Amino acid sequence: MVFKAYTKRDTTIIKGFAILCIVLHNFFHWLTPMPGENEFDFSPLRIQKLFDLLGQYPGECINTLLSYFGHFGVQLFLLVSGFGLAFSMLRRERSWGVFMLERLKKLYPLLIVGVLVCFLGCILMNGRMFVKEEWREIGYKLLFIQTLLPESGTSFNGPWWFFCLIFQLYLLFPLLFRCIRKWRWKAFGVLLVISYGLFFLFRYGLNLYHGTILMQNAPGHLPEFALGILLAFSKDKKIHWLWLVLALGVFVGGNFIEVLYPFTFLSLCVITVFAYQGLKQLKQRKFSTLHSSLFTYFGGISMMLFVVHGYFREPVLKLANTMTGAWGHLFAGLLYFVTVWGIALAAKPLYDFLEAQLDRIKGREHRCSKIVQTIFQVAFVLFFLYVGSYFVRQNLAKHPVAPLAASLEVEQGQVTINDKYVSLAKFPLEKNHFVLHIEGSFELEKGMTPPYLTVDIQDVLWKIMTLHPSHDGEWIRYTFKYDYHRPFVRPIRGKDLTVYFWNRDQKEMPFRNFTIFVNY
């Protein structure tokens, strides 16, 4: 295949497709039936559950497929962002400071509009203003540090983790651009080794946050972004079809085999490159019309849709959960999309106004860029040194064999239809521990779907723990294990760690032999 460079229209079409996947994914993955997704971490049970749900509820295939695969729209954004930035830099080179100033002038109006829209939404939906914890999370996002705090990455407005990721990639872009322009495939190969090497180091070596922190930050998604940059230098280059075969194999295998999981994101981008080049060669009028009327339009407002959609899921989800059947759920998804579409259109004039105001500093761009460059370079070197040292201290804190700090056993218990939450354990925290290790098990009767097992520290942590079943006759034993690494900005001293069943589906079930222990 000969790669034809993307035009502005091409990248807009890909963004349009990607934003539709992302918005609908972020709705459907909270709506039953939910297979889960291998986005920040991996479990082979999720792909098994996907096939089970497709067999049990074939009418829900759109919901479940978008729930499982829709998050890959983020990778398409990274691909076309890398391409677009490189293409722009080829036409007009600028310094690191000028480049970052341009990016900040795009990001901050978007975030400010997003915060204002969510603030109004909170008043209308909840009858209140933001509380202190919500303002704190917003502050982390305005500083682009939320994904460095593992429990803050997807807090407040889950999809906004992307802003911290893309900001980090912007910081690295001028260096990536120069390296790839000079060494092309060699530089790309080195970046792959660095990215995947760091993932396996964090996941299997240091075992910090089970590797999830890498998948929320630039090191975990350098390959997709760098591929976009490389494509900007690959106009009219031949790409052998065996790369497509390899990418398909890796993508399929990465959903079943953990060691291949981190490669699924890049392989999806390779598949997209081949697929889109093939579609471009089609001369069918209907396909061309579809380009113009659907994906191009939504691609043009993709970032407005992205910034507003995450906060407005809850009211539509409440309505959707009262509906039964595939058609009801599809209607709810359509209603949700139309709602956020209307909100995005209403908010866009404010974004355009703020962006125009920032554009007025263009005449002083050179002077401002030097200030921005100096501030960022000094601040981020110091900041990342501090964060790095904190992670090292956390890793060291894991290794000493700690005595049993607290434990609890419940021989028998009952979850009733009227119980939304069933409290199981509470442990007071007397210090600002670096690491909390939580482990235990319980048993349910065979054939029962377990409720969500949730660990909570007030205003600090809320986590649904992954359950691992083992078949033991009429009772199924479920084990769970979780390490909480306290972020450097979160004191926990004086708070309680509580564990409870979240009976979201309002089912009745007995349980027995619940055991939990916590090591500090």
Break the fold down into its secondary structure elements and pairings.
Layout: H1 8-28, H2 44-56, H3 61-69, H4 73-91, H5 96-126, H6 132-142, H7 161-183, H8 185-206, H9 212-215, H10 218-232, H11 242-254, H12 264-280, H13 285-300, H14 302-309, H15 313-320, H16 326-359, H17 365-398, E1 406-415, E2 421-428, E3 435-445, E4 452-457, E5 461-464, E6 468-472, E7 475-485, E8 496-502, E9 509-519
Could you characterize what this model shows?
By secondary structure, this protein is an alpha+beta fold. The chain has 2 domains: about 10-390, no CATH class; about 405-520, Sandwich (Jelly Rolls). It is about 55% helix and about 15% strand. It is built from 17 helices and 9 strands. The chain has helices spanning about 10-30, 45-55, 60-70, 75-90, 95-125, 130-140, 160-185, 185-205, 210-215, 220-230, 240-255, 265-280, 285-300, 300-310, 315-320, 325-360, 365-400, and strands at about 405-415, 420-430, 435-445, 450-455, 460-465, 470, 475-485, 495-500, 510-520. Strands 1-9-3-7-6 form a 5-stranded antiparallel sheet. It has a 4-stranded antiparallel sheet with strand order 2-8-4-5, with no helix packed on it. β4 and β5 form a beta hairpin. It is globular, with a radius of gyration of 24 Å. The model is unreliable at about 400-405 (pLDDT under 50).
